[in-house]
Amino acid sequence: MATASLHSLLLKTQTTTNGYFFKNPITPPSQNISFPNKSLSITCATQVQTQSPTTPKSQSQDRIFNFAAGPATLPESVLKKAESELYIWRDSGMSVMEMSHRGKDFVSIIEKAESDLRLLLNISSDYHVLFLQGGATTQFAAIPLNLCKPNDSVDFVVTGSWGDKAFKEATKYCKPNVIWSGKSEKYTKIPSFEALEQDPNAKYLHICGNETIHGVEFKNYPVPLNKDGILIADMSSHFCSKPVDVSKFGLIYAGAQKNVGPSGVTIVIIRKDLVGNAQEITPVMLDYKIHADNKSLYNTPPCYGIYMCGLVFEDLLNQGGLEQMSVEKSVRSLMNVPFTLEKSELEAEFIKEASKEKMVQLKGHRSVGGMRASIYNAMPLAGVEKLVAFMKDFQSRHG
Ligand SMILES: Cc1ncc(COP(=O)(O)O)c(C=O)c1O
């Protein structure tokens, strides 16, 4: 059974309290729910969703509910396992942080992390899985450097700020074109794929699978019409939140710090035939061939972060894997839930009071304001319920 999410709970809240004017800008107007008889309203930029069946129900009393977009909350079970192994990892006599990255213990850790991720996402041997550094932002440069010559064109579909940043960085290394942008509609839309005017000569088509700031997520993916059929996705903020058919992509990349681990690890899944053609100016640390040939151990990797990602992958597998999350496709969770108050002057108070109630990191991204609750896999249902109850209470006091 899928557990109810912030959104479905919120909608329930509206009908029972006859409270907010609750509007959802990315669903058709007929689906908006409105209760105009109260003055306080909350506008939410995402759709009615449920969290995955793997959503934890609760967490221990002394932990607060952390709604941050990343670094983000991690599964309590994973933190406890890491705690139990922090001082001495298994029979190694030392912590993972102290191990040689070339020793057999760490090699077993990184190999297990890779094979568990391959199981979770059903990644075939046609793909390399790389554990890198520098965040998703470094990939904005690494991808064109590895896949393009300076005069090659590339197609970008820009559905939010991260896609825009990726595009701007690419202009330094190739000739990217924005073939669709949601900017004029404040990044609340995903385009119709048929209407996309893709360049057949483009090296690849780039999308951001889930725009973390605007809360806009692709539910399915455009078919790339470029010669080599290469689709590339920044999946930073919905990586491992649901099954993905990796074979549809030339490259998937994600910073770990949202859904699968601590900051400092960037995961790149790349089709093997796309490796080995980097531009000459490519720094060695950005060259996928170097990392693939050295199994992500060319230089000292972020060992502890990779170990933590491995624990998260193991935890997800133990809970039945990502397939579990495909049970209710039409109501699958979005990861980032931006919302605003009609009386925007009350937002600072909302955030302050929520923090006193041990619910933190609810402030929206500085570029858009408002509030944002990030509900990655590890956010317990109790956190969502507490936030909903708090919103009801806040409304009754300020409405
Ligand atoms: C979708 C997306 N892409 C890229 C980034 C940048 O990631 P990093 O900080 O790992 O460079 C973020 C960070 O929040 C993001 O949400």
TrEMBL record:
Its EC number is 2.6.1.52. InterPro entries: Aminotrans_V_dom, Aminotrans_V_PyrdxlP_BS, Pser_aminoTfrase, PyrdxlP-dep_Trfase, PyrdxlP-dep_Trfase_major, PyrdxlP-dep_Trfase_small. GO terms for biological process: L-serine biosynthetic process. Keywords: Amino-acid biosynthesis, Aminotransferase, Pyridoxal phosphate, Serine biosynthesis, Transferase. Pathway: Amino-acid biosynthesis; L-serine biosynthesis; L-serine from 3-phospho-D-glycerate: step 2/3. It catalyses: O-phospho-L-serine + 2-oxoglutarate = 3-phosphooxypyruvate + L-glutamate; 4-(phosphooxy)-L-threonine + 2-oxoglutarate = (R)-3-hydroxy-2-oxo-4-phosphooxybutanoate + L-glutamate. Belongs to the class-V pyridoxal-phosphate-dependent aminotransferase family. SerC subfamily. This is phosphoserine transaminase.
